[in-house]
Amino acid sequence: MQSSTPSALPAACDFTVFGGTGDLALRKLLPALYLRDRDGHLPDDTRIIGVSRSELDDAEYRDDVRAALAEHVDADRLDPDVLDRLLRRVHHVRLDATAPEDWHRLHGLLKDRDAYDDAVRVFYLAVGPSLFDPICRRLEEIGVTDAGSRVVMEKPVGHDLASARSINDAVGRVFEESQIFRIDHYLGKESVQNLLVTRFANTFLEPLWNSRWVDHVQITVAESLGVGDRGGYYDQSGALRDMVQNHLLQLLCLVAMEPPTYVGRETVRDEKLKVLQALRPLTPADVERDTVRGRYGAGLVDGVPAASYADDLGHADGRAETFVALRAEVQNWRWAGVPFYLRTGKRMDRRTSEIVVVFKEPPHAMFPHSEGGTTANRLHIQVQPDEGMRLHLTAKEPGPGGIRLRPVSLDLSYATAFDQASPDAYERLLMDVIRGNPTLFMRRDEVEAAWSWVEPILTAWAASPARPKSYPAGTSGPIAAAMLLERDGRTWQEPDQ
Q1: Helix count (H) and strand count (E) of the chain?
Q2: What is the domain count for the chain?
Q3: 287 & 167 share domain
Q4: Do 157 and 224 lie in a common domain?
Q5: Same structural domain for residues 179 and 303?
Q6: Do 239 and 175 share a domain, yes or no?
Q7: Range of the domain at 52
Q8: 369 is in an annotated binding site
Q9: Domain co-membership, 294 together with 175
Q10: Ranges for the Glucose-6-phosphate dehydrogenase C-terminal domain (predicted)?
Q11: Does 53 carry a binding-site annotation?
Q12: DSSP letters for 294-308
């Protein structure tokens, strides 16, 4: 094996999607590639190869892709000429990953191109983790895993530390670490990346970004939808594995990381790893005190009746949690004593992902006879659905007759501040894969450090006779999640606060 060197946009690319007829490919990956092609960002000599067990020829697969783009791309962004160009790039290969006799089809297509040695080959594993090992081994056997190849793995990588190591070992036997891209689409969102710029390109904020001035940090990823048709998978996973181990811990890392020497390919990942290694390990007693798990019952979401988790599963034997709230601490010089509160859940009262940095109250009351009072400054970083930032301040209300204090906010909405559409996270991340830029992807040691921290929680929950606490659909989660903060004299920050 040889290590690939990150570079500028290559002249040629074969983008192969295993699971090419699946939901991820048709709903996210193909639309992202279309939009990058629309803006002229794909290499001119690009082929998109969908691999599946379906009996489809190229024309039939192109019809499926055309229908998917019509459904998942806004009509005003669908250009007939670009669509035709993209579809000419699209091919389908019928292949059973576990059948050695099928692989000659993909081998022939990949090798049958001009300038094979100069082309980048991306292999996107939009399939179950059990297929990662056999797919990678077959790719090596047919001779397409040289320096020009890259492999992309969707989260979660494994279901615990041992399985994550097993998967990483299997893929690592074929590909160098520099060729492996573990994708977490949250890291491709504009607001998440802008967090680094906000912290490190503005001198007024970074000196306050520490335990002397920050009271606590809240990270929320809430969904109004239930498990839908993913119930079978979700009941084997649960919210801790599905969301906390990757999405929320990655957001925590970006908030808490030290300034790197520069924002580059490995420097950011080095600093994120240090945060994961500095997380205070949770004992069984800590898990009981500092974590809450819940499961949604029937309720109302946006005024519409919503079924319970058991009803969505179709049986009452579900075992997974659909909600998690927990208290974490980063044990280093910068953050000692500052709690990080994380929560995520399904069937909640709103769909949102946000980071709230709550600063400490002013140390002295300067306006004793004023109406109203000062409130803690807060920086809200809105990840979705409306990407932006809000800085909450205390100001004097205009008018004579004394000082009246009231909270106000300085708002930055990316939609209105910049006269251009923000690319979808997958658009950005897929182009980073093609270019060979790993900055926004998880390194093996990051993944395993995250599992090392999460695993004691899973173990303690498995040993506990307590069941997840019920909460009605359309609410902000179990009452115990509010009590997690209230015992510290704090409350969850909601959008209307």
Answers
A1: 17, 17
A2: 2
A3: no
A4: no
A5: no
A6: no
A7: 12-183
A8: no
A9: no
A10: 196-493
A11: yes
A12: EEEESEEETTEEE--
**Residue 185 is assigned to a ligand binding site:** yes
Report the alpha-carbon distance of residue 335 to residue 491 in Å, rounded: 20
Is residue 247 part of the annotated active site? The answer reads: yes
**Residue 458: other Cβ atoms inside 10 A:** 18
121 lies in some domain? yes
Q: Which two tokens stand for residue 84?
A: 């035709």
Which residue shows structure tokens 């890291």? 187
Half-sphere exposure (CA, 13 Å, Cβ side) for 10?
Answer: 28
Distance CA 86, CA 19 (A): 19
- Claim to verify: residue 160 and residue 225 sit in the same structural domain: no
Q: 419-446 burial string, b = 16+ CB within 10 Å, else e?
A: eeeebbbbbbbbbbbbbbbbbbbbbbbb
Q: What is the pTM of this model?
A: 0.91
Those residues whose C-beta lies under 8 Å from the C-beta of residue 239, and which sit 6 or more positions away, are: 293, 320, 321, 322, 323, 324, 344, 345, 346
Cis amide bond preceding 385, omega within 30: yes
Q: What is the CATH number of the domain that holds 254?
A: 3.30.360.10
Q: What pLDDT tens digit does each residue of the chain (497 aa) get?
A: 333 444 588 889 999 999 999 999 999 999 999 999 999 999 999 999 999 999 999 999 999 999 999 999 999 999 999 999 999 999 999 999 888 889 999 999 998 887 777 889 999 999 988 899 999 999 999 999 988 899 999 877 889 999 999 999 999 999 999 999 999 888 888 878 788 888 888 888 888 999 999 999 999 999 999 988 777 788 888 999 999 999 999 999 999 999 988 877 789 999 999 999 999 999 999 999 999 999 999 999 888 999 999 999 988 888 899 999 999 999 999 999 999 999 999 999 999 999 999 999 877 666 666 666 667 889 999 888 888 888 888 777 776 766 777 777 788 777 676 666 667 889 999 999 999 999 889 999 999 999 999 999 999 999 999 999 999 999 999 999 999 999 999 999 876 55
Of 183, 200, 229, the one marking the end of a domain is 183
What are 105's two structure tokens?
């089809």
Residue 209 included in any domain: yes
Query: Where a domain ends, among 131, 160, 183?
Result: 183
Residue 185's SS3 state is helix
Q: Is 346 a known ligand-binding residue?
A: yes
- Asked whether residue 176 falls in the same domain as residue 301, the answer is no
190: annotated binding-site residue?
Answer: no
Tokens of 419: 């006269």
Same domain, 397 and 453: yes
138 Cβ contact list (under 8 Å, min separation 6): 97, 100, 103
Catalytic hit among 92, 216, 247, 380: 247
Cα 375 to Cα 83: distance, rounded to the nearest angstrom: 52
CA distance 171 to 120: 18
Which tokens go with 201? 């390109």
User: Is residue 272 annotated as involved in ligand binding?
Assistant: no
